[in-house]
């Protein structure tokens, strides 16, 4: 198919039109001559083409004869029918418009003409298949851009992602006695026992020795004198990932002499930072290690004072391990002169997939700059940002920065992971995806392949088909009739969480609380504590509590609003069935959501979501009270709004 007509460059513009014309003619003649020569040359080079051409002509002739014969062979009856039909067509047409019969005839002529033109253009192609100059312009006509069907795209993962070190996901059947895991020092073993940990979970038994292996020759170099490999861990929710980094870091740093920030642990929210900070404090007890949290719970000045102090002219670190949220960390790097990361040995990124999404805050770039800051006073341990490994780059030895990534939904998107600048990463995972083949037919689909995740072994997933108006009754039914307790219920917005909280409270009979950004950090802390102590039966929350929060004894998770993303679902339902225990997750689904939701969960590797039908009769007895409550709710919300308005 010819698409473009290419005009050639004819020289600089000339005002003299005659000169231009004569030059064009000369150029045209020259080109035509060249084309002729090329054609002749090609024909003489490939004599067999002539034979082929002759053969082709021969075949054409035969084809025409065959057609003629077939037309002649057509039974006379049908021939007569055809001519009759044509005559009647002409008749009818002429009755309406006299020109139509002419068009009829001319269209046959046109076809004939087209055919001739086609033959002509075919003849224009030279023997090598290249188009020859057009008879009118002498310019080559380009073409050949046919429609092509897009091929299936096979997703190929880098080896380290495709072939991870496999972690058993069944916790209960794969407990490993702490004393049989190599490399753990007696002090830490004692502390573990004291905290009731007799066995390691599979993820801990795999990851702790791997991290300790990187410090077997001290903090300065890894095994064989090389920089230790970065470690990525993708294991189900509640599988014990926190201890998998707390234990080796405490052990590796416990022999340090001078207090410097050697481990930085980053988490996406204040609550998570607080939770991990607590675990670090528990295991740092009895050592000289100092753990500090900078997550914005206290004022900047208070955090600053906990990080360093001035002794004479020097600023001395008061922290060995810093647990932080990215926002506050960036503040301290930028504004706190006493905060130094020049001795950083471990950078732990928990909830790594979420942290990668917050890379726009450029926290990683700032951390890297702070670690390899020039003009530091750390002459013996001077650090340069590592480049390619050469004999020269390995000397002098410098403290490596090892990155440890943890998540229940670690992305397998190499492009995203690349942003972290990982060094020879090693992946521990309970999902073995291999080089999964994506069945999409477009490149866009292929770039967003369906990722597989692992769900806790003890989790049973259900969905309840419902309508919008029945949702509040369903949650009340679960608590009041089915007597569920310690239920964590998720909505998709804080407004929805608040309304549902008000409604349940007004309905009565349930100890209910809400958890969202409406509450201050201290209120949120207290709410979580009350929920953990089972003072609250139903906690209605936004996704603020969906990630990482470890609340003992959550027996049931309810997705009041179906989550839009699979990662959200995995983290929400992962608030139950933790540490090898069992738990239930219910998702309320509207008719329109059912198909897509079930498909999404199945694609992500769930063993199946069971359908649970709650008959309308079961809800009937609550309906009258519910109607009254709706009126009360309307008034309560109006009151709230007017109070807010007055406060402004
Ligand atoms: N070896 C162990 N023995 C007994 N309990 C453990 C052990 N390891 C961890 N736990 C408990 O298991 C629970 C879940 O652990 P943790 O919070 O580390 O899970 P996680 O994998 O980080 O989950 P998430 O992905 O949801 O953040 C915690 O309450 C923790 O105290």
UniProtKB/TrEMBL annotation:
Region span, Disordered: 1-141
Residue ranges occupied by any Helicase C-terminal domain in the UniProt entry: 474-620
SMART domains for this protein: DEXDc, HELICc
Keywords: ATP-binding, Helicase, Hydrolase, Nucleotide-binding, RNA-binding
GO MF entry, a single one: RNA binding
Domain Helicase ATP-binding span(s) in chain numbering: 222-428
Protein name: ATP-dependent RNA helicase
Function: ATP-binding RNA helicase involved in the biogenesis of 60S ribosomal subunits.
InterPro entries attached to this UniProt entry: DEAD/DEAH_box_helicase_dom (IPR011545), Helicase_ATP-bd (IPR014001), Helicase_C-like (IPR001650), P-loop_NTPase (IPR027417), RNA-helicase_DEAD-box_CS (IPR000629)
Domain notes: The Q motif is unique to and characteristic of the DEAD box family of RNA helicases and controls ATP binding and hydrolysis.
UniProt feature, compositional bias: Basic and acidic residues: 34-56, 108-122
Source organism (scientific name): Coilia grayii (Gray's grenadier anchovy)
Family according to the record: Belongs to the DEAD box helicase family. DDX51/DBP6 subfamily.
SUPFAM superfamilies: P-loop containing nucleoside triphosphate hydrolases
Catalytically driven reaction(s): ATP + H2O = ADP + phosphate + H(+)
Enzyme Commission code(s) on record: 3.6.4.13
UniProt cross-references to CDD domains, sorted A to Z: DEADc_DDX51 (cd17956), SF2_C_DEAD (cd18787)
């Amino acid at each position: 198919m010819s698409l473009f007509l290419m005009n050639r460059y004819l020289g600089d513009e000339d005002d003299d039109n005659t000169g231009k014309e004569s030059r064009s003619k000369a150029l045209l003649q020259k080109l035509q001559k060249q084309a002729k020569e090329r054609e002749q040359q090609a024909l003489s080079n490939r004599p067999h083409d002539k034979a082929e051409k002759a053969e082709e002509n021969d075949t054409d002739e035969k084809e025409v004869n065959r057609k003629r014969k077939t037309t002649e062979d057509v039974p006379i009856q049908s021939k007569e029918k055809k001519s009759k039909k044509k005559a009647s067509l002409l008749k009818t047409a002429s009755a309406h418009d006299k020109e139509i019969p002419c068009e009829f005839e001319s269209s046959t002529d046109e076809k004939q003409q087209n055919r001739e033109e086609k033959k002509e253009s075919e003849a224009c192609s030279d023997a090598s298949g290249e188009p020859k100059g057009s008879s009118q312009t002498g310019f080559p006509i380009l073409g050949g851009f046919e429609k092509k069907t897009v091929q299936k795209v096979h997703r190929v993962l880098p080896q380290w992602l495709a072939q991870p070190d496999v972690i058993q996901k069944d916790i209960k059947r794969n407990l490993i006695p702490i004393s049989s895991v190599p490399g753990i020092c007696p002090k830490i073993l004692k502390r573990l026992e004291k905290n009731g940990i007799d066995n390691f979970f599979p993820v801990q038994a795999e990851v702790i020795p791997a991290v300790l292996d990187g410090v077997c020759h001290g903090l300065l170099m890894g095994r064989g004198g090389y920089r230790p490999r970065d470690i990525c861990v993708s294991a189900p929710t509640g599988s014990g990932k926190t201890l998998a980094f707390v234990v080796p870091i405490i052990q590796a740093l416990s022999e340090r002499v001078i207090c410097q920030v050697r481990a930085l642990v980053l988490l996406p929210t204040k609550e998570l930072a607080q939770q991990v900070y607590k675990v670090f404090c528990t295991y740092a007890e009895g050592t000289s290690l100092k753990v500090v949290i900078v997550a914005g719970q206290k004022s900047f000045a208070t955090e600053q004072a906990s990080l360093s102090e001035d002794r004479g002219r020097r600023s001395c670190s008061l922290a060995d391990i810093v647990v932080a949220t990215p926002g506050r960390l960036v503040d301290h790097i930028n504004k706190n002169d006493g905060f130094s990361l020049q001795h950083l040995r471990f950078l732990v990124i928990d909830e790594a997939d979420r942290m990668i999404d917050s890379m726009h805050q450029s926290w990683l770039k700032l951390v890297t700059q702070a670690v390899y800051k020039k003009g530091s006073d750390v002459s013996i341990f001077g650090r340069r940002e590592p480049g390619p490994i050469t004999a020269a780059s390995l000397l002098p030895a410098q403290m490596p920065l090892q990155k440890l990534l943890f998540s229940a939904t670690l992305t397998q998107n190499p492009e995203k992971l690349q942003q972290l600048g990982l060094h020879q990463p090693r992946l521990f995972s309970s999902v073995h995806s291999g080089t999964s083949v994506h069945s999409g037919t477009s490149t866009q689909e292929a770039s967003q392949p369906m990722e597989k995740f692992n769900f806790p072994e003890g989790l049973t997933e259900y969905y309840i088909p419902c309508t919008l108006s029945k949702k509040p009754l369903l949650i009340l039914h679960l608590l009041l009739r089915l007597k569920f307790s310690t239920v964590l219920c998720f909505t998709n917005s804080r407004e929805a969480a608040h309304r549902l909280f008000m409604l349940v409270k007004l309905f009565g009979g349930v100890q209910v609380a809400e958890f969202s950004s409406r509450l201050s950090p201290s209120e949120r802390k207290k709410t979580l504590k009350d929920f953990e102590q089972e003072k609250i039966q139903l906690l209605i929350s936004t996704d603020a509590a969906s990630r990482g929060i470890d609340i003992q004894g959550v027996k049931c998770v309810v997705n009041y609003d179906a989550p839009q993303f699979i990662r959200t679902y995995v983290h929400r339902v992962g608030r139950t069935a933790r540490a090898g225990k069992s738990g239930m997750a219910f998702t309320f689904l509207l008719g329109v959501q059912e198909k897509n939701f079930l498909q999404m969960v199945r694609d992500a590797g769930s063993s199946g979501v069971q359908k649970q039908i709650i008959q309308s009769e079961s809800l009937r007895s609550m309906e009258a009270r519910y109607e009254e409550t709706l009126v009360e709710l309307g008034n309560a919300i109006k009151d709230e709004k007017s109070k807010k308005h007055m406060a402004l």
